[in-house]
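User: For documentation purposes, I need each entry recorded in a consistent format: the amino acid sequence on its own, followed directly by the corresponding structure tokens. There are two entries in this batch. Please keep commentary to a minimum and don't merge the entries.

Assistant: Recorded as requested. Entry 1:
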Amino acid sequence: MHEYILSLVVWVPILAGVLVLATGSDRHASLARWIALAGSLAGLAVAIPLYSDFDTSTSAMQFVEKTPWIPALHVFYHLGVDGISMPLVLLNSFTTVLVVIAGWQVIQDRVAQYMAAFLIMSGLINGAFAALDGILFYVFFEGMLIPLYLIVGVWGGPNRVYAAFKFFLYTLAGSLLMLVSFIYLYFQSGGSFDIQTWHGTPLGMTAQTLMFLAFLLAFGVKVPMWPVHTWLPDAHVEAPTGGSVVLAAITLKVGAYGFLRFILPIVPDASEQLAWLVITLSLIAVAYIGLVALVQSDMKKLIAYSSIAHMGFVTLGFFLFNPLGVEGGLVQMISHGFVSAALFLCIGVMYDRLHSRQIKDYGGLVNKMPVFAAFFMLFAMANAGLPATSGFVGEFMVIMAAAEVNFWYAFVAATTLIFGAAYTLWMYKRVVFGNVANPHVEDMSDLNAREWLLMAVLAICVLGMGLYPKPFTDVMHVSVVDLLAHVAQSKLP
């Protein structure tokens, strides 16, 4: 079982997606939904042993599989996870179950295709997190764009085609630079696409700098970092609720993961030389994008900009070069997965009832949906970084790490706690409190059982991680320390 566990994690959701597609037309929509739910739960079930059987005392890759794939080019089907990638695989498998349940009643057209797109994308993203071969990673990294492009372009809002094209072109442009870097590394490493071999390949400073910039663009677009972030608000606003959840909770994390798997270990000297660039872009994202979020009138756009600010914390933590910062960035990635998923689901609940995302169309919601208002309050507080919620843990770790490096980094980073509270709570106040301003709000009903289940599960995750983050940090600690040791000792001759 153990030797094929990662293949199961990758292929179970993909095969379930193909099976869902086989149900065909919407006459069998109910069957498609149940197969999708079974497939997503199976995908989560096969991923759980990754955590339960994980050895936290080593930084070596675990559950490794290696089979020749394209022997002429020395390309292998090579999978493995460490303390950095394993939590992200679990987060992805968990989120897939949520989006299948979230789209249960809401999606009425092309149900099988909708559910299949999420399942297939889940398998491809797991593949990207587990791939230890450059070409295999590239195939998974590009492959996951296709289902997401379809989700936004087919089931999205009025401007969905524009948003889907913009998202696709931005990401593809960055990926091509990454492919060129991979080909260069293949020749420099003596004809190997093995990512771990690349970690020890000696490179000159010029080559490192050029590759650093190529990787920065490829993964920076995906995160997304300022100033290549403009595709994200458009994609979020047009995407269906499930699309927004996966986009925020998972696909952005693939970009951040690329920093730790490729940039820091492969071009360590350039990473240290150019850390100021990433730190500057991250701090601009944290402070400036927080102000941009303040003036949004569309709830989805507000949370989309909030995502960019929170992901700025992740990239900032990675380039402080201390364990607290990198672990803080990783904790922030997982926390943001929970919190952003919860907030987009909350907006989806309101949108399903009133078909508006405009803040001004709501008001007094607590009078009609008190249970929903309570859940929404918890997630809003987590987004603002309230202690005892998951949103606080990662941000606090990164701020502490930044203070060790430079007081002003920590000072600017800490402004997010003010801006985050400002835009999140101002939105919450206008939507939930006050008198019922819109007569349509009078007719809104509180959470049904399916929605309540989604909210309760995410509430447990947000509070559990906020109160007891140790299970998360224990898993990643040894891998992070080993990565930073590799960066520190890898000085140019």
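Entry 2:
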Amino acid sequence: MLFIGLLLLAATGTFTALAIADNLSGGPEYGVTVLDHHIATLNTLEIFSSGLALALLFCLALATVVSASTHRRRKGRRAHAS
């Protein structure tokens, strides 16, 4: 579970960084490209909504990592206590 959380955390962070770096030009509609591939043309509301979705995925990944590491510590304490 820790690995899945870390993988999701890295993927959302990388995608967000690439999307921001490749799309610094603005206008009423934005052509979103990642690594020179056109993904979509979005307006400001759609960009805001996709930012919310990426933030929720990032928080989910962070919660998964924290939960897995806490579970691992509790499991280790039980083994030492016995």
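Summary note for entry 2:
The mean pLDDT is 78.
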